[in-house]
Protein backbone atom coordinates (compact mmCIF):
# COMPACT_ATOMS: atom_id res chain seq x y z
CA UNK A 1 0.00 0.00 0.00
CA UNK A 2 1.29 3.47 -0.91
CA UNK A 3 2.03 5.81 1.98
CA UNK A 4 -0.32 8.27 0.29
CA UNK A 5 -3.29 5.96 0.75
CA UNK A 6 -5.42 6.19 3.89
CA UNK A 7 -4.80 3.51 6.48
CA UNK A 8 -7.41 0.71 6.27
CA UNK A 9 -10.40 1.29 8.57
CA UNK A 10 -9.86 0.08 12.14
CA UNK A 11 -11.96 -0.16 15.28
CA UNK A 12 -9.23 1.98 16.87
CA UNK A 13 -10.00 4.95 14.60
CA UNK A 14 -12.82 6.17 16.84
CA UNK A 15 -10.96 6.03 20.20
CA UNK A 16 -7.87 7.62 18.58
CA UNK A 17 -10.04 10.43 17.25
CA UNK A 18 -11.65 11.00 20.66
CA UNK A 19 -8.24 11.11 22.35
CA UNK A 20 -6.99 13.61 19.77
CA UNK A 21 -9.92 15.98 20.28
CA UNK A 22 -9.54 15.79 24.05
CA UNK A 23 -5.86 16.67 23.70
CA UNK A 24 -6.70 19.49 21.26
CA UNK A 25 -9.17 21.00 23.72
CA UNK A 26 -6.68 20.90 26.61
CA UNK A 27 -3.81 22.24 24.48
CA UNK A 28 -5.99 25.05 23.18
CA UNK A 29 -6.99 26.04 26.71
CA UNK A 30 -3.40 25.90 28.01
CA UNK A 31 -1.83 27.80 25.10
CA UNK A 32 -4.69 30.29 25.05
CA UNK A 33 -4.25 31.15 28.72
CA UNK A 34 -0.46 31.29 28.30
CA UNK A 35 -0.67 33.52 25.24
CA UNK A 36 -3.43 35.85 26.38
CA UNK A 37 -1.29 38.21 28.51
CA UNK A 38 1.46 38.23 25.88
CA UNK A 39 -0.90 39.30 23.11
CA UNK A 40 -2.57 41.89 25.31
CA UNK A 41 0.84 43.51 25.89
CA UNK A 42 2.20 42.98 22.38
CA UNK A 43 -0.52 42.21 19.80
CA UNK A 44 2.05 41.22 17.15
CA UNK A 45 2.78 38.10 19.20
CA UNK A 46 -0.60 36.64 18.20
CA UNK A 47 0.99 34.94 15.17
CA UNK A 48 3.68 33.40 17.40
CA UNK A 49 1.05 31.93 19.70
CA UNK A 50 -0.92 30.71 16.68
CA UNK A 51 2.19 29.05 15.22
CA UNK A 52 2.83 27.22 18.50
CA UNK A 53 -0.79 26.04 18.61
CA UNK A 54 -0.69 24.85 14.99
CA UNK A 55 2.52 22.94 15.66
CA UNK A 56 0.87 21.25 18.63
CA UNK A 57 -2.22 20.30 16.62
CA UNK A 58 -0.26 18.83 13.70
CA UNK A 59 2.27 17.15 15.99
CA UNK A 60 -0.51 15.47 17.96
CA UNK A 61 -2.14 14.40 14.69
CA UNK A 62 1.07 12.58 13.76
CA UNK A 63 1.54 10.93 17.15
CA UNK A 64 -2.05 10.04 18.02
CA UNK A 65 -3.71 9.61 14.63
CA UNK A 66 -0.83 8.75 12.31
CA UNK A 67 -1.82 11.67 10.05
CA UNK A 68 1.00 13.54 8.32
CA UNK A 69 0.96 16.42 5.86
CA UNK A 70 3.24 16.68 2.83
CA UNK A 71 3.61 20.09 1.22
CA UNK A 72 4.31 20.51 -2.47
CA UNK A 73 5.08 23.73 -4.28
CA UNK A 74 6.14 26.92 -2.56
CA UNK A 75 3.96 28.49 0.16
CA UNK A 76 3.67 32.27 -0.29
CA UNK A 77 5.39 34.59 2.18
CA UNK A 78 4.23 38.06 1.11
CA UNK A 79 0.85 39.79 0.92
CA UNK A 80 -1.48 37.66 -1.20
CA UNK A 81 -4.72 35.70 -1.40
CA UNK A 82 -4.58 31.94 -0.87
CA UNK A 83 -7.55 30.16 -2.48
CA UNK A 84 -7.85 26.52 -1.49
CA UNK A 85 -10.00 23.47 -1.88
CA UNK A 86 -11.61 22.82 1.52
CA UNK A 87 -12.36 19.30 2.72
CA UNK A 88 -11.73 19.20 6.45
CA UNK A 89 -10.24 20.80 9.54
CA UNK A 90 -6.90 19.28 8.52
CA UNK A 91 -6.48 21.58 5.54
CA UNK A 92 -7.21 24.57 7.80
CA UNK A 93 -4.36 23.50 10.10
CA UNK A 94 -2.01 22.67 7.24
CA UNK A 95 -2.55 25.92 5.33
CA UNK A 96 -2.25 28.07 8.42
CA UNK A 97 0.95 26.28 9.42
CA UNK A 98 2.50 26.78 5.97
CA UNK A 99 1.70 30.50 5.78
CA UNK A 100 3.79 32.64 8.17
CA UNK A 101 1.20 35.45 8.59
CA UNK A 102 -2.03 33.67 7.96
CA UNK A 103 -5.51 35.17 8.18
CA UNK A 104 -8.76 33.54 7.13
CA UNK A 105 -11.95 34.90 5.66
CA UNK A 106 -14.29 32.99 7.93
CA UNK A 107 -17.85 32.70 9.12
CA UNK A 108 -18.54 35.21 11.88
CA UNK A 109 -19.81 32.39 14.12
CA UNK A 110 -16.19 31.30 14.63
CA UNK A 111 -15.61 34.44 16.69
CA UNK A 112 -17.93 33.00 19.33
CA UNK A 113 -15.69 29.97 19.89
CA UNK A 114 -13.92 30.48 23.25
CA UNK A 115 -10.21 31.33 22.99
CA UNK A 116 -9.91 30.38 19.32
CA UNK A 117 -12.29 33.11 18.19
CA UNK A 118 -10.42 35.80 20.11
CA UNK A 119 -7.02 34.77 18.73
CA UNK A 120 -8.46 34.46 15.20
CA UNK A 121 -9.39 38.14 15.26
CA UNK A 122 -6.00 39.09 16.73
CA UNK A 123 -4.11 37.45 13.84
CA UNK A 124 -6.23 39.38 11.34
CA UNK A 125 -8.98 36.92 10.36
CA UNK A 126 -11.93 38.64 8.69
CA UNK A 127 -15.42 37.50 9.74
CA UNK A 128 -18.09 37.52 7.07
CA UNK A 129 -21.87 37.71 7.32
CA UNK A 130 -22.98 35.91 4.18
CA UNK A 131 -26.49 37.29 4.50
CA UNK A 132 -25.19 40.79 3.73
CA UNK A 133 -24.17 39.89 0.16
CA UNK A 134 -22.33 42.74 -1.59
CA UNK A 135 -22.02 44.71 1.63
CA UNK A 136 -20.06 41.84 3.16
CA UNK A 137 -17.62 41.87 0.24
CA UNK A 138 -17.15 45.63 0.61
CA UNK A 139 -16.35 45.09 4.29
CA UNK A 140 -13.74 42.43 3.45
CA UNK A 141 -12.04 44.64 0.86
CA UNK A 142 -11.98 47.57 3.30
CA UNK A 143 -10.37 45.40 6.00
CA UNK A 144 -7.83 44.04 3.50
CA UNK A 145 -6.81 47.56 2.46
CA UNK A 146 -6.55 48.64 6.10
CA UNK A 147 -4.31 45.67 6.89
CA UNK A 148 -2.09 46.32 3.86
CA UNK A 149 -1.47 49.88 5.07
CA UNK A 150 0.00 48.65 8.36
CA UNK A 151 3.80 48.26 8.67
CA UNK A 152 3.54 44.46 8.87
CA UNK A 153 1.17 44.28 5.89
CA UNK A 154 -1.73 41.92 5.26
CA UNK A 155 -0.01 38.55 5.17
CA UNK A 156 -1.66 35.60 3.47
CA UNK A 157 -5.45 35.91 3.30
CA UNK A 158 -6.88 32.39 3.07
CA UNK A 159 -10.25 31.96 1.42
CA UNK A 160 -12.24 28.91 0.31
CA UNK A 161 -13.80 29.59 -3.13
CA UNK A 162 -16.54 26.98 -2.71
CA UNK A 163 -17.55 28.55 0.59
CA UNK A 164 -17.85 25.28 2.52
CA UNK A 165 -16.25 21.89 3.10
CA UNK A 166 -16.71 19.28 0.40
CA UNK A 167 -16.31 15.51 0.29
CA UNK A 168 -13.34 14.18 -1.71
CA UNK A 169 -14.35 14.30 -5.38
CA UNK A 170 -17.29 16.62 -4.73
CA UNK A 171 -17.38 19.88 -6.68
CA UNK A 172 -19.43 22.97 -5.90
CA UNK A 173 -19.70 26.18 -7.94
CA UNK A 174 -16.88 28.59 -7.15
CA UNK A 175 -17.86 31.92 -5.66
CA UNK A 176 -16.32 35.20 -6.83
CA UNK A 177 -14.88 36.27 -3.45
CA UNK A 178 -11.18 35.65 -4.17
CA UNK A 179 -11.27 37.15 -7.65
CA UNK A 180 -13.32 40.17 -6.50
CA UNK A 181 -10.76 40.89 -3.77
CA UNK A 182 -7.99 40.53 -6.34
CA UNK A 183 -9.76 42.88 -8.72
CA UNK A 184 -10.02 45.50 -5.99
CA UNK A 185 -6.53 45.11 -4.54
CA UNK A 186 -4.28 43.72 -7.28
CA UNK A 187 -3.05 40.96 -4.97
CA UNK A 188 -1.93 37.66 -6.54
CA UNK A 189 -3.99 34.53 -5.85
CA UNK A 190 -2.16 31.34 -4.90
CA UNK A 191 -4.39 28.33 -5.70
CA UNK A 192 -4.07 25.26 -3.46
CA UNK A 193 -5.12 21.67 -4.11
CA UNK A 194 -5.66 19.18 -1.27
CA UNK A 195 -6.77 15.61 -0.60
CA UNK A 196 -7.14 16.02 3.20
CA UNK A 197 -10.72 14.76 3.25
CA UNK A 198 -9.56 11.23 2.49
CA UNK A 199 -7.99 11.07 5.94
CA UNK A 200 -9.89 13.61 8.02
CA UNK A 201 -13.58 13.70 7.03
CA UNK A 202 -15.43 16.98 6.90
CA UNK A 203 -17.50 16.10 10.00
CA UNK A 204 -14.34 15.11 11.89
CA UNK A 205 -15.10 11.43 12.73
CA UNK A 206 -13.45 9.00 12.40
CA UNK A 207 -9.96 10.13 11.33
CA UNK A 208 -7.68 7.68 9.50
CA UNK A 209 -3.90 7.71 9.29
CA UNK A 210 -1.80 8.38 6.20
CA UNK A 211 -0.02 11.19 4.38
CA UNK A 212 -2.27 13.98 3.18
CA UNK A 213 -0.96 16.32 0.48
CA UNK A 214 -1.35 20.09 0.26
CA UNK A 215 -0.06 21.45 -3.06
CA UNK A 216 0.59 25.13 -3.76
CA UNK A 217 0.02 25.78 -7.47
CA UNK A 218 1.29 28.52 -9.78
CA UNK A 219 -0.08 31.93 -8.73
CA UNK A 220 -2.78 33.73 -10.65
CA UNK A 221 -1.82 37.37 -11.10
CA UNK A 222 -4.24 40.26 -11.46
CA UNK A 223 -5.59 40.92 -14.92
CA UNK A 224 -8.71 38.97 -15.94
CA UNK A 225 -12.13 40.20 -14.91
CA UNK A 226 -13.58 38.58 -11.82
CA UNK A 227 -15.67 35.98 -13.65
CA UNK A 228 -12.73 34.91 -15.81
CA UNK A 229 -10.37 34.78 -12.83
CA UNK A 230 -12.82 32.59 -10.91
CA UNK A 231 -13.03 30.21 -13.86
CA UNK A 232 -9.22 30.05 -14.12
CA UNK A 233 -9.00 29.37 -10.40
CA UNK A 234 -11.39 26.44 -10.69
CA UNK A 235 -9.51 25.11 -13.71
CA UNK A 236 -6.31 24.99 -11.67
CA UNK A 237 -7.59 23.69 -8.35
CA UNK A 238 -10.07 20.98 -9.35
CA UNK A 239 -7.87 18.86 -11.69
CA UNK A 240 -4.95 19.13 -9.28
CA UNK A 241 -7.13 18.01 -6.36
CA UNK A 242 -8.47 15.11 -8.45
CA UNK A 243 -4.88 14.11 -9.27
CA UNK A 244 -4.02 14.02 -5.56
CA UNK A 245 -7.10 11.92 -4.86
CA UNK A 246 -6.12 9.47 -7.60
CA UNK A 247 -2.58 9.26 -6.23
CA UNK A 248 -4.03 8.27 -2.85
CA UNK A 249 -6.26 5.60 -4.35
CA UNK A 250 -9.41 7.70 -4.72
CA UNK A 251 -10.95 6.42 -1.49
CA UNK A 252 -13.68 8.51 0.09
CA UNK A 253 -14.24 8.88 3.81
CA UNK A 254 -17.85 9.91 4.45
Automatic annotation (TrEMBL):
Keywords for the protein's UniProt record, in alphabetical order: Acyltransferase, Membrane, Transferase, Transmembrane, Transmembrane helix
GO molecular function, one term: 1-acylglycerol-3-phosphate O-acyltransferase activity
Gene Ontology terms describing biological process: phosphatidic acid biosynthetic process
Record has Hydrolase as a keyword: no
InterPro entries registered for this protein in UniProt: Plipid/glycerol_acylTrfase (IPR002123)
UniProt xrefs under Pfam families: Acyltransferase
Residue intervals passing through the bilayer: 20-41
Pathway the protein acts in: Lipid metabolism
Domain Phospholipid/glycerol acyltransferase: start-end pairs: 80-197
Protein name per Swiss-Prot or TrEMBL: 1-acyl-sn-glycerol-3-phosphate acyltransferase
Protein's organism: Paracoccus thiocyanatus
Lineage of origin: Bacteria, Pseudomonadati, Pseudomonadota, Alphaproteobacteria, Rhodobacterales
Amino acid sequence: MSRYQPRPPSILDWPRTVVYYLYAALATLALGLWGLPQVLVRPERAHRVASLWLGQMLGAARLILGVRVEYRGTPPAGDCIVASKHQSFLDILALAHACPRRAFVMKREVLRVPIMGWFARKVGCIPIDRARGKEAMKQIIAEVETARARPQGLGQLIIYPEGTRTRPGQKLPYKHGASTIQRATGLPIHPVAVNCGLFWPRRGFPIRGGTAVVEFLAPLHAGPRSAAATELLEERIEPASDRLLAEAGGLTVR
